[in-house]
Structure formats: C-alpha cells, structure tokens
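Weekly structure sync, notes
Attendees: PL (lead), two postdocs, one rotation student
Agenda item 3: pending single-chain targets
PL asked that the sequence for the first pending target be pasted directly into the notes so everyone works from the same version. It is reproduced below exactly as submitted, 274 residues in total.
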Amino acid sequence: MIEKLAKTLVELKKEFVKIYDGKSQIQEVIPKSKSELFPIEESHLKLLHEFATANPIYYNSFEKQIGSVNCIVYEGDINKYWLNSIQHGSSKAPFSPTWIMSGYISSLLAKELGYLQVIDIGSGDGRIAFCAKILDLESYSIEIDDMLVDLQNILTSTLDFHPYCSDATTFDYSSLNLSRPIFFVGGLAQMGGVSLASGVLGKINSITNLKNDAGWVFTGTLSQKYASDPKNEAGWGTLIDDNSLKSIQSITLPTAWTLHESDETPYIFAESRK
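Predicted structure, written out during the meeting:
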C-alpha cells in the first residue's frame, strides 16, 4: 500500500509540473480529501494542510484539480531560511525541503517497519517529525539553525514534535530515552550528508542499547550532476558498508529540489547487520 501511495504521488507530481505556470521558488501539492488514489485518513490530511497553512515558508495556496485528484497547491520561498542555515560554521547541509506528502509517506513506512520513534536530523521546518507525530510515533526534531527552530515552534501549537536547537553531531541522544528509533538524515550524501550522518552514527553507536536497534533513512540522489558512490545506494553505499549497516528498503518520493527533474528522490532505509 505504501509503495503504491508513493508511486501515485510521483505521478501526481509529474502531472502538476505539466500544468503549473506559477513563478514561486518552491511549490508542492497535498490532496484536498481522501480518495481512491489517496486513501489517507481525513484527520491526517487535515493536519498536513494545517502544517502548510501555518508555515511561514508558504505565502499562497489555491485549489487545483490535477488529473482526477482535487488538491491544494502551496507556493513558498525558502531563500532567507536557506541563507541563514548556511551561515553556521558547523552546518553540514543547507535547508531544502522534501514535500510534506513525502514526509508523511516515508514516516508511514517507518511505522510499518516497527519503529517507535522518529528523530528528524537536520530537520529544517520539522515536517518529517510532524508527520511522524500524526502517525502516533514519538518524534524529535534536531536542527542547528535558530531561525528554523523558531519556525518549528510556531508549528508545535498543532502537534508537539519536540524541536531542539542543537548540532546533531554533539546532541545527547541518551537524554531522550529512546527504544527502537529511526533517524532521518537530512541532506544528500554529496552535500554534507555523509559528514552529518557519520557524526550522528558515532553518537548512537556509543549507546549500547541503541547500536543494533536503530534504523536509518538516508536521502539519496540519482542525478548525474552529483558524484556517484562506488557502492551505489544513491550516494550512500560506502557509508552504509563502513558502518556495518544494510539497506532494507528504498522508496522514491518528490522533493523541492527534484521538481523539474525526471528522477525523484530515493529514501534509503537501513539497519544494523547485527
């Protein structure tokens, strides 16, 4: 069901690109209501729309039928957040968001795989942590940029996804009392993601009860403009192998940076080889 939902979202994005004639920096769509193509709980869709409506990144929205699906299109601008995020000396990856619906579907897969907590690393506006909370997973958002954390705090009035303003590579994860967590690592491997993931992996591997029970989600790319990895996994193969992890599943979803590209963004789910 989750893979079918992901494929349907990719097709919706492709149809949207064909008909969209706006000029906004970023844009994305969320189905207006539950349908045969998007059999998502109405209460969940309502919360996804509330997140987008309250999010200062988006300055405009309108209803649009895309194919057979009635949607709300959200238009936004992340320039000031992107610029602020790269000013931090220890920042590993600048802010560029996945789609909200992509965050929901990837969180849905994390829940299906049996994880109990989602930790959104380099979380930007916290959308993945928010989506995980919708699905009754405990969630935590770790973001180094104070402007983005201030933005997240605006959004916690709907659901509290526990934003922390911290460098994820030095954060004390033992303070969260985690059991069966999964870590979503923001940033492509080739754009600071490896450094960020390596730092967090080091912290988690030092916590005995988490070393073998934690899951990982890495944001990959198939674009030829980025250097490939000799062990593949959309740029993450070497890191996965070097840290005694194994890829267990991947799911392909739309993101802001692949809107006009033919290839979507693969999310690589991995776990310890034990």
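Discussion points:
- The chain has a mean pLDDT of 91.
- The beta strands are 26-31, 58-66, 69-76, 117-121, 138-143, 163-165, 181-185, 215-219, 245-253, 265-272.
Action: rotation student to compare against the earlier draft before next sync.
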